[in-house]
Amino acid sequence: MHPFEFIESQTAEGAIHAVVADPQAVFFAGGTTLVDLMKLDVMTPGALVDINRALPDSIEERAGKIQIGANVRNSDVAYHRLIRERFPVLSEAILAGASAQLRNMASTGGNILQRTRCPYFREAHAACNKRAPGSGCDAMKGYHRSHAVLGTSESCIATHASDMCVALAMLDAVVFTQKENGKGRRIPFNDFHLLPGETPERETVLERGELILRVEIEPSKLSRQSHYLKVRDRASYEFALASAAVALDLEEGTIRAARVALGGVATKPWRSPEAEAALTGKPAAKETFRAAAEAAFSGAKPRRDNAFKIELGKRTLVRALEELWRQHS
Amino acid sequence: MATILEHPAIQPAVVTFQVNGESRALELDPRTTLLDALRDHLDLTGSKKGCDQGQCGACTVLVDGRRVLSCLTLAAAVKDKAVTTIEGLAKDGKLHPMQAAFIECDAFQCGYCTPGQILSAVAMLEEAAADKLSDSEIRERLSGNICRCGAYPNIVAAVRHVEAGR
């Protein structure tokens, strides 16, 4: 591992200042991504600025909205009464990811910023435009069974690995940050992550030294009638091949409103307005769900080994909608 | 320590923490994981290094009562916290009920994953509190602990044994 200095910070301002002052410094929260990638020499920061005592670690209800502090651990979000009751999709998505030990360590902010599991990104000697811009992409002709079919570019086809983020994308979460000048930003979740395009090394809209303080979600009829389904190679403790976060507002068998986001198949947490449009105003029925799935994947681009993900992703979405429909009818 | 001397600009991390109820103070290369601090600096070799990248669970310990992976935890980050390892579970020479149940149910073969399995199972029952868990829920909640020998049926039986006796 590359040597680094460990700097404790008691305040958000202090942590931001420390990262802005040193171009080699990064924020350190749960460490589940960072320490792993540092052991692989994929990330080689010269300083870790520990924010574990500097940020909120509670879940609060304010003005009808739920605020999740950036330092709240994934397991504490998943098992929180307010989250289970009003946002079942978020609880289910978090509990479908990683293991109990990792969920106890990983922070909310860190989960949002977690890096891809693309094996070429994680191998310091492979060509990877995300890790080493301009070096090429070994995944294009190499192993890419687990890679994305939506939101890809000629530079990068790496899948976004988070389950939690798929639920947050579906819930129209808002990310609140703080910057060097003390000013904050309010970033809608679906604007937070970037498509790879020609700059896959840029994964979010965050500026250098900008720190996530909290995430806000608003309960609604939709958020209460929500569900997450994940399909993977093993029964547990495995990344998604395909997943779907769904919410339905049903009235006498008709879908008044719908929300759909997909995971395991895209380069960022993938909200699907196409699927939502195909569901809205239609009767709740398998044919409607299938039409939504067709719409969700209409722009999908398969490669040699991951074409199966298109049909798998469609079936995952249909099954997620069917399960939710059955729960609420 | 040699690594620090090779990089004189890097300050060692001074870590004071509780391990199995005892206060410990270490001066460490900041790169030292909690797992390496326990094994190499405190001679507590019960916590095992399997994959060393957070995928097998053999290194599971409790930090402030919560199960975590010590291979992905930096020792510097557990300052002032309380760590429990497999060496700290038995009290007054008497095995913890989960340790006794693992023996009773023959819940291991080679034993390498066992310290992690036991600590994970102890924490899992704490997390579940009064909830009654099905076999599949126990399996799901323990999925972060891999057993290459495949002792899973007996591990589930051991957990059931302890659960029934609470």
In short:
Chain A has 329 residues and is α+β, with helices and mostly antiparallel strands. In chain A, 30% of the residues lie in helices and 20% in strands.
Q: How would you portray this structure in words?
A:
The complex is a heterodimer of chains A (329) and B (166). Chain A has 329 residues and is α+β, with helices and mostly antiparallel strands. Helix content of chain A is 30%, strand content 20%. In chain A, strands 4-5-8-6-7 form a five-stranded antiparallel beta sheet. In chain A, strands 9-10-11-12 form a four-stranded antiparallel beta sheet, with helices on both faces. Chain A has a three-stranded parallel beta sheet with strand order 1-3-2, with helices on one face. In chain A, strand 10 and strand 11 form a beta hairpin. Chain A is globular. Chain B has helices spanning 2-6, 34-41, 97-104, 114-128, 135-141, 152-164; strands spanning 13-19, 22-28, 60-63, 66-69, 82-84. Chain B starts with a helix and ends with a helix.
Supply database-style keywords.
heterodimer; A: 329 residues; alpha+beta; 12 strands; 20% strand; B: 166 residues; Ubiquitin-like (UB roll); DNA polymerase, domain 1; 2 domains; five-stranded mixed sheet; 6 helices; 5 strands; elongated; disordered N terminus
* Count of alpha/pi helices of chain A: 13
What's the structural domain tally of chain B? Answer: 2
> Any idea what the shape of chain A is?
globular
Number of strands of chain A: 12
**Gross geometry of chain B:** elongated
The chain pair forming the largest interface, with residue counts per chain, is:
A-B, 28 and 35 residues
CATH superfamily of the largest domain in chain B: Beta-grasp domain
Classify the oligomer: heterodimer
| Strand order across the largest sheet of chain A | 4-5-8-6-7
What portion of the residues of chain A fall into strands of 2 or more residues?
Answer: 15-25%
Poorly predicted runs of chain A are: none
CATH topology of the largest domain in chain B: Ubiquitin-like (UB roll)
Structural class of chain A: alpha+beta
Query: Please, what is the average pLDDT of chain B?
Result: 94
Main sheet record of chain A:
5 strands, antiparallel
Helix/sheet category of chain B: alpha+beta
Number of helices of chain B: 6
Q: In CATH, what is the class of the largest domain in chain B?
A: Alpha Beta
